[in-house]
Amino acid sequence: MPVLKKSPLWHIYILLCADGTLYTGITTDCERRLKEHNNSPSLGAKYTRTRRPVSMVWCEDVASRSLAGRRECAIKQLSRAKKLALVGGL
């Protein structure tokens, strides 16, 4: 019987940047991705490189990469006030 590869769980996350702005992204590993945003000169998003340190203020599990991408897009469309309401205020 063939071995089925389990697809990884995806996460949508929101970061609070040092300048007070919010950044939304997706990943399979929240802890690793936060370290990349804060420490890596090439792996962190260009947006967050000049706004360090960043802290993860919200993370949501999603079953697939496709759903994560769609949810990320929907969150990026929200106003700042609605994003803050989503994360429970700051």
Describe this structure in words.
- This protein has helices spanning 30-39, 46-49, 65-77, 80-86; strands at residues 10-16, 22-27, 55-62.
- A hairpin with a 5-residue loop joins strand 1 and strand 2 (22-27).
- The model has no long low-confidence stretch (mean pLDDT 92).
- It has four helices and three strands; from the N terminus they run ββααβαα.
- The relative contact order is 0.24.
- The chain has a single domain (10-86), classed as GIY-YIG endonuclease.
- It starts with 9 loop residues before the first strand and ends with a helix.
- It has a three-stranded antiparallel β-sheet with strand order 2-1-3, with helices on both faces.
- By secondary structure, it is of the alpha+beta class.
- The chain is 38% helix and 23% strand.
- GO terms for molecular function: endonuclease activity.
- It comes from Neptunomonas antarctica.
- Residues 8-85 form the GIY-YIG domain.
- InterPro entries: GIY-YIG_endonuc (IPR000305), GIY-YIG_endonuc_sf (IPR035901), UPF0213_domain (IPR050190).
**Assigned CATH architecture:** 3-Layer(aba) Sandwich
Count of helical stretches: 4
Query: Percent range for helical residues?
Result: 25-40%
Rg, nearest Å:
14 Å
Low-confidence stretches: none
Largest sheet: 3 strands, antiparallel
Derived from helix and strand composition plus strand pairing, the structural class reads alpha+beta
Global morphology: globular
How far is it from the N-terminal to the C-terminal residue, by CA?
51 Å
Which percent range describes the beta-strand content?
15-25%
Q: What sequence of helices (H) and strands (E) makes up the elements?
A: EEHHEHH
CATH top level class name: Alpha Beta
Overall mean pLDDT score?
Answer: 92
Q: Can you list the strand order of the major beta sheet? A: 2-1-3
